[in-house]
Write a structure and sequence with these properties.
heterodimer, A: alpha+beta, Rossmann fold, OB fold (Dihydrolipoamide Acetyltransferase, E2P), six-stranded antiparallel sheet, 27% strand, B: alpha+beta, Ribosomal Protein S5, domain 2, four-stranded antiparallel sheet, 5 helices, 10 strands
């Protein structure tokens, strides 16, 4: 092996090989259907040897930095050395890659050859699989040899286009040539061509290699590796199903249009293309483009949805105007499940809100929601799902799941069983799955991959991938909830870790020239106890002219995370750190999160500083932005900072003086904000006290909010607003901002009516009036009612969103909750990607670094903001699900508990089961209380129900304080839920 | 599970160090130089770089069309740039006063002015007409190479043969980008006098990430120019030898003196 030619940049410039082919293809244009003739050129090489593999070129022996470079296998002995001895060489075709990835990843197939043709076809069909294949090719594994074969450029395997051969046939022929090439080059080794295409197998039968289907090959493998249950991994295609579904069964869905018909329809403007997003199994949205604007189209019902699952790229046809629905129609009519959950903080954002698109169109009759139906699927988003198998129980089926299970479960003649798998993710329908190990899988959380969804099947088909662990186990359930919310939780890949600075990286003024040295300033940080990722620090000095100099110093993450690097892309994808009860999933590798970026005390750190000169009465005189190097003198907890604020003046104590001065200024800023109409909202959140070893919850505490918390918050808000104004001045259309839309009146109506029933009034004309009316809404006997109202009004508002300033009019940039015309996130770059972008924008606008190219593309920023909104929401939901999980563990450990609760909502609809919703402030739990009576008297105006209980007649009205019992109820298959019962 | 908008498009390079057309990073496309393809003019050249084909013709030195254009001490060099309607996949008429073409004409003119001894032809006019016949990236470079070749074929006195080549991308630095690569890479065109090592033109419209990247890209482009020179020089010598032999064979060809350095 020649070690010299590792770097191609040092090679001499020379002419391309003399052999080349030109291929011509005709493609219709998108707009007018004009036919274009396109000619491309391809060079054929004879220096490609036997394909490429990844060679480990890492210089140091650290395992986490293994990364390689592609190497050409130049000679036959080299190839023989690489291949695992006495094992067949397996050449795969496109469909095997697309559908049988789990077999390739998990089965003991040591020598895999992936032809470029197959990989490129894969790329056109399913990006997820393409990524997995590339990962497979790039991983360096001691027991596996994966070879990439660039067949279009290899003189031995290049196939000329021939008349009468379809592109698919041509690609199959190319892949067979690769198999033949290996068959002829390696006489003593058996070469297996893996394909599920019968025609391709027949054409291959007479050649120097063996063609096999995946199922056949897996059966061969199972003989040598019994007990691996490999056949469960083989994907279920349509043909496999017919063993138990009668072929002549009537289709349950409309057939999808063919790919060519789809692209023709999309080009001619009859069909629209978009990604289907759903929040549950009933309604879905597809965002389409009409001209320059994006509109979300509502898809209602199973028939219109036509087998599309969340994330599919679909083609839709719009319904005529008569079938459009009015904008006021409530889309999700699903009632809360009876089980209790963690109280939510804000209103559920609609899907259109998540991606910053409108979902109504103004027509003559007013605003209408366009509706449509799915006519075809451009690209499937069949990702792996975690969940569990339900089986028909011996008795009568009570739950929805058991009914479906009883209906669909079959025993197959070949000894396997078809069972029904229910994903935890509610967006995905149940999956039918064929397995040899059903009894072993019951009561386990498993991962299942979706394969296909024929029109004759009510549910999609899938295959088993792996077992996570027993249902109910804390770690298993944590992994399940991460998968459910699609939160990236794999360890950082080697390419990302390779972007890290060395561990002994020295932070000094010399290592990053051009920084202002602020190490002489008494900077300190205030955070919750035990905080590892400190991203902000403050200082406050008295200037000679009597004014204050206040500085907010934010960790300079962009110094380490360079734009466009693997680490940057990974962070952009993760977008946020996720905080669970028992662990933290970082956006950036731990070295940055907890060490180099974290503004710990008594060490030098790089920072991005905002420095203000503030007059003693709280007016800002000037502001300055600087990349700096700081030296924090103290990392205070909120408690410590609070004690500084409370203790008497002591001019000798620098820390105490600074905190006191900051507190005085913060009070002034806060008053000014409240005068402008900023809202003070409340959250029902609680935190768990965990056992230090088992990490099981032992107690629940409410968050203590001290003045010190408000102090830090005030300066962070100030920094964010200041930075937002600055970047907006330089980049009026490219700034990443955060907006909070004004709430919709209809969302507030129920709350206003409830408040009226206890004699309080809420005015929502603008944020100032809302803030004032919330302040006035006090019940003397119970101060908690006021907090409850604040919690409930938060839920009537949409959550804040990230957006790119060029997308919306300036009037829509407004942040309602903070009453700020512009707002952004600047202060937590360690845990939020939006802040990283804002850091780059700010650095560019003060001319310390150029603006990265991709940040000047509006469409990139749109996608980025949509991703950040989705991830942010997912992180919140996962955090809440984690709290819920720990609540269950807490209650199942200690048995039932009795607690005080407040009634949030009384169900006064006639005909429904008598029930009401309560919140338990002690645990931050919210849930529906079902009454064990058949009849109840309802008073909708008063929000009250009355019924005759076992011992006495009872009456419950909204905002009443009631006594409830909290307990854990067992469901089938070790699943549990929290139940709340009323105590009379 | 990364998002589609985050994916690196240069997948093939990462897997086998090949570009989408099968070249390595440091390989320039196949090149062909034909001279004397148009008999009507003093000098002509048809240059192909991969699928890009450019025809350049030189007329002159002639009298200026208008007296007012004349310069007392040197010749006036005029460059006209046009594209055939069939040069891209999308067939459409391209007006000659297109701003991009006017700019390209100006760039070619500047590059050649650095090489032609214009003061030897005072009060005269030299016209270069450039037509893009087929376009697949590297239009400006092919135009400069063709014009330079045609000038030599016309027998004008030159300091050196101007050669042009583009380089782009940063990691890795690619040379002689085709149309597909031009779309999502930085692209820097560079023209130089290869035997003197003087850069006469370099143009880049993209934002380079660092000064160090500029050095690398420019260095690669200059190496590319030298490689183009090797091919071009051989073609010119061959053409000269051909003309010389046909002259001795009493062929009826209107010959012009070649001026090969």
């Amino acid at each position: 092996m020649n070690d010299d030619d590792t770097s191609c940049a040092e090679e001499d410039i020379r002419a391309a090989p003399s052999l080349y082919t030109r291929s011509t293809y005709y493609r219709p244009t998108m707009k007018r259907g004009k036919i274009l003739k396109q000619v491309t050129e391809r060079y054929l090489r004879d220096d490609l040897g036997y394909g490429c593999y990844y060679k480990d070129t890492s210089t140091d022996n650290r395992i986490d930095r293994v990364h390689g470079t592609p190497q050409i296998i130049a000679s036959l002995p080299e190839l023989q050395r690489l291949l695992k001895p006495s094992q067949p060489v397996v050449v795969v075709d496109t469909n095997v890659l697309l559908h049988q990835m789990d077999v390739l990843q998990q089965a003991p197939i040591p020598n895999i050859v992936v032809p470029q043709t197959a990989l490129e076809e894969c790329r056109n069909h399913r990006m997820v699989i393409y990524d997995q294949t590339v990962d497979l090719l790039r991983s360096i594994h001691p027991n596996r040899c994966t070879i990439f074969f660039p067949d279009p450029y290899h003189t031995a395997t290049s196939v000329e286009e021939q008349a009468g051969l379809s592109p698919n046939d041509l690609n199959d022929e190319r892949i067979r040539r690769v198999a033949e090439f290996y068959g002829k080059s390696l006489p003593g080794v058996s070469v297996i061509f893996l394909t599920d295409d019968v025609a391709s197998r027949e054409k291959a039968s007479s050649r120097s290699y063996q063609a096999m289907s995946v199922r056949q090959y897996v059966q061969v493998l199972e003989q040598t590796h019994p007990g691996l249950s490999l056949s469960d991994l083989v994907a279920a295609q349509t043909s496999v199903l017919s063993s138990h579904e009668e072929d002549d069964e009537a289709p349950l869905f409309e057939t999808h249009l063919e790919a060519t018909a789809l692209s023709r329809g999309i080009q001619s403007g009859k069909l629209y293309r978009g990604v289907l997003r759903s929040s549950d199994w009933n309604t879905a949205h597809v965002t389409i483009r009409r001209g320059d604007e994006r509109v979300a189209v509502t898809i209602q019902g199973d028939w219109d949805r036509n087998r599309a699952v969340d994330g599919d790229v679909v083609a839709i046809a719009l319904h005529p105007l008569t079938k459009w629905i009015s904008s006021a129609a409530v889309l999700s009519l699903v009632k809360d499940t009876p089980s209790a959950g963690i109280a939510s903080e804000t209103a559920e954002p609609t899907l259109a809100e998540m991606s910053n698109v409108r979902d109504t169109i103004a027509v003559e009759q007013g605003e209408l929601r366009p509706t449509g139906k799915v006519v075809g699927i451009v690209r499937r988003n069949f990702e792996n799902q975690s969940g569990s198998i339900f089986t028909k129980s011996s008795g009568k089926a009570d739950s929805e799941q058991e009914k479906i299970a009883a209906q669909m479960e079959r025993e197959n003649p070949d000894g396997t069983a078809t069972c029904v798998f229910f994903p935890v993710n509610k967006k995905i329908p149940p999956v039918l799955l064929r397995t040899t190990q059903r009894d072993r899988l019951l009561g386990q959380r498993i991962v299942v991959s979706l394969d296909s969804w024929p029109a004759t099947s009510r549910y999609p088909l899938g295959h088993y991938v792996r077992t996570i662990g027993p249902t109910g186990d804390k770690d298993v359930e944590t992994e399940v909830l991460l998968q459910q919310h699609d939160i990236p939780h794999e360890p950082f890949p080697a390419a990302v870790l390779a972007c890290l600075p060395p561990e002994d990286y020295k932070i000094s003024a010399e290592n990053s020239p051009g920084r202002v040295d602020l190490r002489h300033l008494p900077v300190l940080s205030i955070d919750p106890p035990g905080c590892k990722d400190i991203d902000d620090a403050l200082h406050c000095l008295v200037l000679p002219n009597g004014n204050y100099q206040v500085g907010v110093h934010i960790a300079d993450v962009t110094h380490y995370v360079k734009p466009g690097t693997a680490m940057d892309l990974e962070a952009a994808n993760r977008s946020t750190s996720t905080y669970l009860v028992n662990k933290r999933l970082d956006m950036l590798p731990a070295l940055l999160t907890t060490d180099l970026c974290s503004l710990k005390c008594n060490v030098d750190r790089y920072a991005f500083s905002v420095l203000w000169e503030v007059s003693p009465d709280g007016n800002i005189i000037q502001v300055d932005f600087q990349k700096s190097i700081i030296h924090s003198i103290a990392a205070l907890t909120y408690q410590q900072a609070q004690s500084f604020i409370d203790q008497p003046d002591d001019p000798a104590d620098i820390q105490a003086c600074a905190v006191k001065r900051l507190a005085v200024l913060a009070r002034k800023f806060r008053q000014r904000r409240i005068d402008a109409g900023a809202l003070t909202l409340a959250s029902p959140e609680v935190k768990f006290v965990l056992d230090s070893e088992s990490l099981n919850p032992t107690d629940v505490q409410a968050y203590a909010l001290l003045e010190a918390n408000a102090l830090v918050e005030e300066f962070m808000l100030l920094a964010n607003v200041t930075v937002a104004k600055r970047i907006l001045r330089q980049y009026p259309t490219l700034s990443v901002l955060r907006r909070h839309p004004a709430p919709n009146r209809s969302m507030f109506d129920p709350l206003i009516s409830k408040a009226q029933s206890i004699g309080l009034s809420i005015n929502i004309e603008d944020s100032k009036k809302l803030a004032d009316s919330l302040d006035a809404a006090q019940v003397k006997s119970d101060p908690y009612i006021n907090k409850l109202l604040r919690i409930l009004s938060t839920r009537c508002m949409s959550p804040a969103q990230y957006f790119c300033s060029g997308e919306l009019r300036a009037s829509e940039w407004h942040h309602y909750g903070l009453a700020a015309p512009v707002y952004t996130h600047f202060t937590s770059p360690i845990r939020r990607y939006a802040d990283v972008c804002v850091h780059r924008l700010l650095a560019a606008s003060i001319n310390v670094a150029p603006l990265p190219q991709h940040l000047s593309s509006k469409s990139y920023l749109h996608d980025l903001c949509a991703n950040m909104n989705r991830r942010h929401r997912a992180a919140q939901l996962a955090g809440r699900a984690s709290v819920q999980l720990h609540t269950l563990i807490y209650f199942s450990g200690d048995g039932a508990k009795e607690e005080d609760a407040y009634v949030l909502d009384v169900d006064t609809d006639q005909g429904s089961d008598p029930s009401f919703t309560v919140m338990v402030p002690r645990y931050g739990i919210e849930g529906r209380v079902r009454l064990d009576v058949a009849e109840a008297e309802r008073f909708p105006e008063e929000h009250r129900i009355a019924w005759v209980g076992k011992t006495k007649s009872c009456s419950v009205k909204v905002f009443d304080k009631v006594r409830v019992r909290l307990s854990v109820r067992e469901l089938q298959g070790d699943q549990r839920e929290l139940a709340i019962d009323f105590i009379e | 599970m990364s998002q589609p908008w985050l994916r690196n498009r240069n997948h093939l390079f990462a897997l086998c160090n090949l570009r989408t057309d099968g070249r390595k990073a440091s390989e320039i496309r196949r090149m062909r130089f034909q001279m004397g393809v148009v008999e009507q003019v003093a000098g002509s050249a048809l240059v192909e770089m991969g699928l890009t084909a450019v025809l350049a013709t030189v007329t002159g030195p002639t009298e200026c069309l208008r007296r007012a254009d004349e310069l007392p001490d040197r010749a006036v060099l005029q460059v006209h740039f046009a594209a055939a309607p069939f040069c891209t996949a999308d067939r459409k008429h391209v007006p000659t006063n297109d701003r991009r073409f006017l700019e390209a004409a100006r760039l070619v003119q500047r590059a050649l002015e650095a090489s032609i001894f214009l003061h030897l032809y005072p009060r005269s006019l030299i016209q270069i007409h450039i037509t893009i016949l087929s376009e697949d990236g590297g239009r400006l470079c092919a135009a400069i190479n063709a014009a330079s070749c045609a000038v030599v074929h016309a027998g004008l006195a030159v300091k050196d043969i101007v050669c042009a080549c583009a380089a782009g991308g940063v990691d890795p630095v690619l040379i002689d980008l085709n149309r597909r690569e031009e779309i999502d890479n930085i692209n820097m065109a560079c023209a130089m006098l290869p035997q003197r090592g003087t850069i006469v033109l370099s143009q880049c419209e993209a934002r380079l990430p660092s000064v160090e990247a500029l050095d690398r890209v420019l260095e690669t482009a200059m190496d590319g120019c030298r490689a183009v020179f090797a091919v071009m020089e051989a073609a010119i010598r061959e053409n000269a030898a051909l003309q010389w032999s046909s002259k001795r064979g009493k062929a009826i060809v209107a010959l012009s003196e070649t001026n090969v350095v």
